[in-house]
Amino acid sequence: xxxxxxxxxxLSRSVIKHIRRLNPKLSVSAxxxxxxxxxxxxxxxxxxxxxxxxxxxxxxxNFACSGGQIEGARLTMLLPGNVKESWIKxxxxxxxSYAEAKGIQILGGHTQVSEVFARxxxxxxxxxTAGDYCANKKKIKPGYDIVxxxxxxxxxxxxILKEKREELHTRFPDFxxxxxxxxxxxxxxxxxxxxxxxxxMDICYMHDGSSGGVYGALWQxxxxxxxxFEVQHVDIPIxxxxxxxxxxxxxxxxxxxxxxxxxVVVEDGEKLVEYLAEQETExxxxxxxxxxxxxxxxVNELEHRCLSPVNGDEIHKVL
Length: 319
Known about the structure:
This protein is α+β, with helices and mostly antiparallel strands. The chain contains ten helices and 13 strands. Belongs to the HypE family.
């Protein structure tokens, strides 16, 4: 089976299908395209990564798509047998710095050390309360816009750059690689999701990019909406540096971890883009919801590609 997040076909038929709904207070439950759960106004969302920051930011991003307020976090650390106590102290120092920066209380968690773990893995669960915004697929109609905030393949390209810099240096000079690197804060969509939720616009749905890239996120959106869409490939924001890094390793940047981007379904996408531009946040209308079920990427007038479920993430072809 492919490395990374479980492919949607397996997730749907072997995981989500078997989750029984036992509590009538559950308003947002497990489903493809759901980033969080809402139980009677209490929201939870998870993130996993092989560094504390990646797990933390993925959990925060998933929670941010609820429009709610984070109040606490639980941490799970799965550590290899050769782990040193100094490393564990370092991990906790990192987590504490993230928590203090956002005023989030660490509530506890679990730490497990075992030889079965080849490398450290971290799981963060964010807990909090729901806000006024609530995703509502019944509001979404053909003609509604899909807005994208952020850049395709941002986290994936940055991780590859950090891990494979010497190899990339055989083609690219230092100044270019320095320019290609991004600050880890760029992985977060928390602030922009909050501004969108509080904008007063009739936001129907927010979904963050993650493993599987832009195409993976768009596929999940279509499954959740139970509607089709047409996305203009040329309008998907992407850094030239990301394209160059992906061409070097012969991978698809639109299937590369897109943590740091946010997708929004709203009636008037241009109005939202203008609102965000006033706050110096770049966004673009990349597509539109359609009556048909097809999930289409429009490359040009002659080439329309049908999206299919994404299997894994391109980063695993490199690292």
